[in-house]
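User: Predict structure, ligand heme C.
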Amino acid sequence: MHKHPTAIGGLLSATLLLCPPALAQDTDPATGLVIAEGWQVVSANCTVCHSAKLVTQNSGSRNHWQGLIRWMQDTQGLWAFTPEMETTILDYLTAHYGPKEGARRPPLAPSLLPPNPYKQGDTQPGAS
Ligand code: HEC
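Assistant: Predicted complex:
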């Protein structure tokens, strides 16, 4: 396949390069971590055993991250952090890799649900 560079194509890529999406955050090219307070601590401590991708693809509450850190400390040989360091790491992770908004929707109100076909009688689906 050969390429057919066109003026339009060149213009488009120039435009894309010059106008990154408004929501883009600065990320470290080497790790992909969002560059913000504490990122170097995370980069230094959380990319030693596995790719930073494991970190950046994960997300969750402070509790979730703390639980993961405890699990890695208990079972995977992750070293202990000083409380200050752990706070820095958890602050960073919770702020930039927190629970995904919009990933789950709140449950529908019962009045918005269709009638439950199994409500009447004792017939269980699959039971025979
Ligand atoms: C001493 C080694 C080590 C260090 C350092 C380490 N981890 Fe891990 N981590 C592991 C191992 C081993 C796994 C499991 C790897 C796998 O599933 O492939 C893991 C898995 C993970 C996962 C994936 C968990 C899942 O549910 O799939 C995340 C997220 C993670 N680590 C985050 C971190 C963060 C954040 C730090 C820094 C605070 C960190 N890791 C530092 C060893 C380490």
